[in-house]
Amino acid sequence: MGLVSRREILFAGAAAGGGLLIGWHLDARAGPRAATKVAPPVFAPNAFIRIGRDGRVTMIVGQVEMGQGVDTSMPMLLAEELEVGLDQVQVEHAPPDDKLYGLPGFGFQVTGASTSVRLLYEPLRKAGAAARSMLVTAAAQTWNVDAASCSVQKGVVSHPPTGRKLAYGALVDKAARLPVPTEVALKDPKDFTLIGTPAKRLDTPAKVDGTAVYGVDVRLPGMKIATVAASPVVGGKLISVDDSKAKAIKGVRQVVRLDDAVAVVADDMWAATRGLKALVIQWDDGPNGTISIDDVVAGLEAASLTPGVVVRNEGDAPAAVASAPNKLESVYEAPFLAHATMEPINCTVHVRPDRCEVWTGSQVLSRAQAVAAKSVGLPLSKVVVHNHYLGGGFGRRLEVDFVLQAVRIARRVHGPVKVIWTREEDIQHDVYRPYYYDRMTAALDARGQPLAWTHRIVGPSIFARWAPPVFKNGIDPDAVDGAEQLLYDIPAIRVEYVRHEEPALNNGFWRGVGVTHNTWVVESFIDELAAAAKQDPVAYRRGLLGKSPRARAVIDLAAQAAGWGDRLAAGRGRGVSLMYSGWDTYVAQVAEVEVSDAGEVRVRRIVCAVDCGTVVNPDTVKAQIEGGAIFGVSGALYGGVTLKNGRVEQSNFHDVRVLRINETPAIEVHLVRSSERPGGIGEPGTAATAPAIANAIFAATGKRIRKIPLERQLRSA
Amino acid sequence: MLTLKINGKSHNVDADPDMPLLWALRDLLGMNGTKFGCGVALCGACTVHLDGSPRRACVMPVSAAIGHSITTIEAISATPIGKKVQQAWLDLEVIQCGYCQSGQIMAAAALLETIPAPTDTDIDEALSGNICRCGTYPRIREAIKRAAQARAERGG
Fold first, then answer.
1. Domain contains A611
2. Among B95, B98, B86, CA closest to B139
3. Last residue of a domain, which of A208, A233, A268?
4. pLDDT class of B156 with cuts at 50, 70, 90
5. For residue A383, what are the CA distances in angstroms to A358, A370, A406, A593?
6. Fewest CB atoms within 10 Å of the CB: A21, A610, A688, B101?
7. What's CA A321's distance to the chain center, in Å?
8. pLDDT at position A378, please?
9. Full residue range of the structural domain in which residue A270 is found
10. Which of A588, A687, A682 is closest to A636 using CA atoms?
11. Residue A425 lies in a domain
């Protein structure tokens, strides 16, 4: 399959029924050229498939590629039912259009939350099946035979009794005149030829030779480059700028003042960067200018002493804990985390009186379009968004703050301007994974078995801001995800959520968000229970999973593969974790750590067992778990953005430490064969990691760490 | 006007002598394969070769590159080792988002030019300056070994 890439982006208008298409030709390296007409498709039964008379099959992917493999997995779903080979298909990226490409259940275009395969598994297969059914009907009518007597392989319809064959290209005119079926039969999974087989990724050839185009690589005629300093304190305002020195720098063209940011517009990034450094800026810090990390934590702690909204309630857990002779109480903390996507935040905008064009990499295309339209005061139809490969998303590009900022700058610049944040600007103006604060209690019987479990989650609601309708009855479903579904068989369970908005930093999604935080708490605390019961952590969990065979199976698989119970050298320990959440994927992880006398923690080995139901592209699933685990190790060992006087104290990779190759453990991923519905896979590897490491540190040292970053905490423990 | 020799060709660039090579490549010459990641030589996304040695283009002034032979990701396939590294990257499906991979590939190719059969320690030392947030490190390690093996078997 050839990947058309951004060089030929087609903007489908009313694609259903093969309506008019407005073609747009973009040369990735030379920048966009004038719009040129592209021949309308002959057969376009839905927004995802077009087939021309030449037999060329084009698949339009509404999800954005940020490394997770949707450019390959989405076409696999379509191609499976359309009965074409991946080598016969070309991929295009969809324009912003919530009506055509809105994610089921979300209603708008979004790539995130481990949803792509999980939520599009059936819709895309149905789209493929509908197209196939129409093409087969067209062939059957041509031959005057029963459609049921025809078969399809690799884009060719045949009638075995008579040996006649017609390729899709020869059938498109007739098929296009047929009604699009509303009910279609999907293939029996046993007949799958693509789903479940390893397919080579389609986006990678351009990523080994430097030709892949990310947002930051956009080049346009007459384009300026800008870099920006936003108020170092959230809510701060610009008082004044002395730009005399900046303007004297060769290549600096303009200094743009916004009420909360200053941008230097230049011929190149070097001039822009030097210009920004030469500015003398005075800020009014506003109400957040005195806030430090301790204030944030103190606020969370106070909130944690108030009752929350009950998310799950079985039995009377608080009463059971209060009256139990044998109880445990713990507090867990999870810090602010920066995304630090390798591609720094950027957005290119060209504002003209009657239209606005945006070039970026976004996980929410239609939101990028909407925020630009609102800022420039144009209708959506006058705002074109060109999306590019994302050099990492991890939730950061679910936000459009940087798109809005770039549009505001571009409104004051003549011609196109590419706004690039320095790494320092990225680290200090991120939309951070929230700080969470959790109170846990449990009661044990004389044998150490849990009688009751309470979990009070304290943290802000991302959804209340990001998608308000999702925040219902005082519950943010993400904040409690992974805690609410606790699989352990405990007679009394109470899970509460205290919404507490944190000052001074903006917060948002970060690979796994709620689940990553909750799994850390739940799986650390169940480990505490096992230790209090003087039982083996794996055996203890197994004993509580009688009603969850899939969970038990992944624990067994991970434990066996990891050699659980085998002796380890002094200073080493193994820890286990189980992850289950709304993603509907089960992961068990065994981490093996080595702790030096100085308290340095090295994760030596990670073994994951994964049951994500039906697997579409097995190698991608493995890659997502591997990478997710590594992302999780970085966060668990080293993560933690702090603030002082309202300012983020970290700025670049020297103090936002992330895992490097020499620190990376050996990672094994074992997939469970399953025909269950597909679960999410982008985030589970991350979510399972922190508790496995913390539990391994406990096994190695006897020290229970209840606060991330684990390494710093261990050293001060 | 400065003259830089990049990928075997001479380029005249109107650059401030202090301008980092990264921005001369990207903004003046439109060679976008070399990536901006941190600006201070902490992440390796901007790795290029200067006379075959890996260098961080984000902190290297163009003036320091004059008279030297610069190789970027756009031309690494012209070297037998570079080509094998790229093929190993594809064979083992190393890449996820891909943004850091130009730098990873350049670092790996430079390593294999000097050490044909690197050990894990050699790989750690040569690649520990290259950050990947997607977590492709285990596959990078395997791909380097694969490329080394391919060279041992087929020459080059």
1. yes
2. B95
3. A208
4. low
5. 8, 8, 14, 51
6. A21
7. 37
8. 98
9. 215-286+345-420
10. A687
11. no
CB contact under 8 A, B86 and A209: yes
Are A112 and A65 spatial neighbours (Cβ–Cβ below 8 Å)? no
Contact (CB<8Å) B105/A652: no
Residue A561 token pair: 């593969």
Whether residue A109 is found in the same domain as residue A149: yes
Chain B neighbors of A211, CB-CB under 8 A: 33, 74
Number of domains in chain A: 3
Do A541 and A583 lie in one domain? The reply is: yes
Q: Is B48 on the interface with A (CB under 8 A)?
A: no
Whether residue B32 and residue A219 make contact (CB cut-off 8 A), yes or no, is yes
CB contact under 8 A, B99 and A628: no
A3, A90 Cβ separation under 8 angstroms: yes
Say which residue the tokens 């039995």 belong to: A315
Q: What is the ipTM of this complex?
A: 0.98
- Write the DSSP assignment of A558-625 as a string of letters: HHHHHTTTS---TTEEEEEEEE-STT--EEEEEEEEEE-TT--EEEEEEEEEEE-SS-SSHHHHHHHH
CB atoms within 10 A of CB A563: 14
Q: What are phi and psi of A687, to 5 degrees?
A: -65, -30
- What is the mean pLDDT of each successive set of 10 residues along chain A, which is 717 residues long? 34 29 29 42 92 95 96 97 95 95 93 95 97 98 98 97 97 96 95 96 96 98 98 98 98 98 98 98 97 98 98 98 96 98 98 98 98 98 97 98 98 98 98 98 97 98 96 97 98 98 96 97 98 98 98 98 97 98 97 96 98 97 98 97 98 98 98 96 97 98 98 90
pLDDT value for A40: 56
Quick check: B91 contacting A, CB < 8 Å?
no
Say if the Cβ atoms of B99 and A342 lie within 8 Å: yes
In a shared domain, residues A407 and A383: yes
Distances (CA, A) of A55 to A148, A167, A194, A709: 23, 7, 20, 55
Rg (CA), chain A: 27
Q: Are A29 and A12 in contact (CB under 8 A)?
A: no
Q: Do A115 and A161 lie in a common domain?
A: yes
Rg (CA), chain B: 15
Task: Domains for chain B: give ranges and CATH numbers.
Answer: 2-75 (3.10.20.30), 76-154 (1.10.150.120)
Last residue of a domain, one of A155, A186, A208: A208
- Contact across the interface for B95 and A204, Cβ inside 8 Å: yes
- Contact across the interface for A219 and B73, Cβ inside 8 Å: no
- Chain B environment of A204 (Cβ under 8 Å): 89-90, 93-95, 98
Residues A93 and A169 in one domain: yes
Residue A416's domain is classified under what CATH number? 3.30.365.10
- Pairing between β-strand A346-352 and β-strand A586-595 as defined by DSSP bridges: unpaired
| Orientation angle between helical segments A116-143 and A70-82, nearest 10 degrees | 30
Token look-up 């290209």 returns A169
Residue A266 belongs to some domain of the structure: yes
Phi, psi of A31 (to 5 degrees): 90, 170
In angstroms, the Cα distances linking B122 to A170, A662, B131 are: 57, 10, 17
pTM summary value: 0.94
Average pLDDT over residues B12-28: 97
The band of B54, judged by pLDDT with boundaries at 50, 70 and 90, is: very high
Are A274 and A145 in the same domain? no
Instruction: Identify whether A313 is part of a domain.
Output: yes
Cβ-Cβ contacts under 8 Å, A362 against chain B: none
Residue A242 φ/ψ, nearest 5 degrees: -100, 110
Tell me how long chain A is: 717
Asked if residue A314 and residue A221 are part of one domain, the reply reads no
Question: Quick check: A207 and B95 in contact, CB under 8 A?
Answer: yes
Residues of B in contact with A652 (CB under 8 A): 38-40, 42
Specify whether A401 is located in the same domain as A375.
Answer: yes
Q: Which residues pair with B102 in a beta bridge?
A: none
Residues 6+ positions from A5 with CB-CB distance below 8 Å:
A28, A206, A212, A213
